[in-house]
Amino acid sequence: QVQLVESGGGLAQPGGSLRLSCAASGFPFSFYVMSWFRQTPGKGLEWVYGTYNNGSDTYYADSVKGRFTLSRDNAKNTLYLQMNSLQPEHTALYYCAKGRHGLVAITALGEYDYWGRGTQVTVSS
After folding, report:
1. CA spacing 20 to 30 A to 70: which of 48, 58, 64, 124?
2. Which residues share a beta bridge with 69?
């Protein structure tokens, strides 16, 4: 049974940092693309950052360039998102997602077959 469990969200002040984690189980983690998405009220799910199997090939949305960094530890079956220089516009529910077998487009919502329940990030003074 595939499980993705996010943690690490919370309240941060503008300019602060948070590190999100996604613990994966029930599938061979190192074989699959993994990504972070986020959702804000009134907006759909937005792809944020993704990584291929080896963790060295990572891709990100322009909106997080220079602020967020994704990493994965295949030995621990865990995906991370380091979030620095947080601003109120980064407030969202953040999800990790597992790419389907044969994924083609890392940014496409439909290319992911399992999702965690999300962890809330709120940036406010």
Report:
1. 124
2. 82
